[in-house]
Amino acid sequence: MRFDLTAILTRLPVLPVAALAGAMTVAGFAPFYLFPVPVFTLAVLIVLWQRASGTRRAALIGFCFGLGFFLTGVSWIYVSLHTFGMMPAPLAAVMTLLFCLILACYPAICGWLYSIAGTQSMFITLAVLPAFWTLTEWTRGWLFTGFPWLALGDAQVPHSPLAGVGPVLGTYGTTYLTVMTAAMLVLAFQSPQSFRQRAQYSAIVLVVWVSGFLLKHFEWTNPVGAPVKVSLLQGNIAQEVKWRPDEIKATLDTYVELAEKTDAQLIVTPETALPLFLHDLPVSYLARLAAHVRSNHGDILVGVPERTDARDYYNSVLSFGIAPTQTYRKSHLVPFGEFVPLKPLFGWFLEVTNIPLLDFTRGTETPKPLAVAGQRIAVNICYEDAFGGEIIRQLPDATLLVNVSNVAWFGRSLAPMQHLQISQARALETGRYMLRATNTGMTAIIDQHGRVRDVAPGYTKAVVTGTAQGYEGATPYVRWGNGLIIAISLALACIGGWLRSRDASRIRSL
Length: 510
Prior knowledge:
Blueprint (H helix, E strand, L loop, with lengths): L4 H6 L3 H12 L10 H16 L3 H19 L3 H8 L4 H15 L1 H13 L4 H19 L25 H23 L6 H22 L5 E2 L4 E7 L13 H13 L5 E3 L14 H13 L3 E9 L5 E9 L5 E3 L13 H4 L2 H4 L17 E3 L2 E7 L6 H4 L8 E6 L9 H16 L3 E5 L5 E3 L5 E4 L6 E7 L2 E2 L3 H5 L2 H27 L1
Parallel strand pairs: 2-3, 3-4, 8-9, 9-10
Antiparallel strand pairs: 1-14, 2-13, 4-5, 5-6, 7-8, 10-11, 11-12
């Protein structure tokens, strides 16, 4: 008796199965880390696409898969809009649904392209379909400022053998191989297939995954200098009170008390940990922080909003201590969270929400690492670390990565753990430690292989203290960025288009 995935799925309703497969794909990501799940759910999707009666049907199947995927995976956006942004519940639900409907268009486009290229071609399925998925996912990562959250390759970090591809081709290269593996499984278990054909497909999968496993054990970067003692502060300030004037003193006291409990050379606070503009902070407060870290022969990185004389204000991180004061200003801002795009069209958003500091100014796109605590630190704020191509702008100069975040905006949802996994992917790609300081979780030390060395429990006041090793050198991904895998994917997509055009010409000539 042979297992035939196509025959099994033929008996089931197509669109609900596609949506369910999309929803189940979320289990591949944190906090579940079930990295084989996306391979199998994508295999189901590929079979459904192969059964589709036409391009429109294939697009609809991809759309249902995407809707199930994103409604399950990023529904926490509703929490930020309604619970903390004070947007009326019906409007917040509609906005969240609309956002997920837009995101679902990317798998729909992938299915449409696959159907046009030819779902019955082995080459198209094995090589071109993964290219289509990679290109649409990459487009999602930059179009309309980008939303690369839940990039498929991140699900393989850090436990999957395919994670070894991250330092070479980045998340999108891992995405390509994940989709290709799913396609191999589909071809291996379709009928009619001989035992030899099944063995060949299985052998290719084995070679790909063993190669990834071997790459995981390759050291792309080298330690530089002595390890530095670090302390990452998690103040656990509830979002609903963070900006209340009567709570500001308590918040300032929390962070200075946490800082003074540690003798670390490098202390890091979360994003906007101090809920006042820099020029409004008491001079004595900053002097107290600076004096403590100087006694440790080190520096502190403080998340604080910063206003200039021009009335622009920034989401900033400033250093204080033995090194001269330096500043990093966030450049990749969150639409509708840190700025409102196209104000003539979306200005109403300001009226229906109560999100503080909703009009930040962008910092430079070419920041320099901060030279503090004997390290050169590439700082990134909040979901900037979702953009691997932007993180590497400060490399290979930087020896450490630091992410400061406040994901209290998303409540007790999947978002904090998903964000932790994103940081793990950036550490793996760059061959650098990533230090994460967050308001409510997940504050963690991540090593150069993307493994969590220490993490604070969520929704507790805590200090994560440990050592971080600086690294120098450049992984292939740091050198090439996303350019190589995108070029490969574009070339394969063009080959697929040429093959489709050639076959169509042959048919017309008959």
